[in-house]
Specification:
- The protein is α+β, with helices and mostly antiparallel strands.
- Helices cover 42% and strands 14% of the residues.
- The chain has a two-stranded antiparallel ribbon with strand order 1-2.
- β1 and β2 form a beta hairpin.
- The chain is elongated and about 45 Å long.
Length: 69
């Protein structure tokens, strides 16, 4: 594997992480969930902005079924 292949693979991994992060925020926003994150060694509750869910398809999503509970 040469340097170009390694850089391409790293780029794809980074894009996947960004996509997963965005989806997590969208789902939490849509379902009214609070996220717990670690920032600078401290545990912080994080509530995503409402409306960040947009046109997210939540069919079959177990988080979406918690709405209203």
């Amino acid at each position: 594997m040469n340097d170009k292949d390694i850089m391409d693979m790293q780029r794809k991994i980074d894009e996947g992480i960004v996509l997963a992060h965005r989806r997590l925020l969208e789902r939490a926003s849509l379902t009214g969930q609070t996220l717990v994150v670690s920032r600078e060694g401290r545990i912080v509750n994080f509530v995503p902005e409402s409306g960040a869910g947009g046109n997210l398809n939540v069919a079959g999503d177990p988080l979406a079924r918690r709405v209203g509970k």
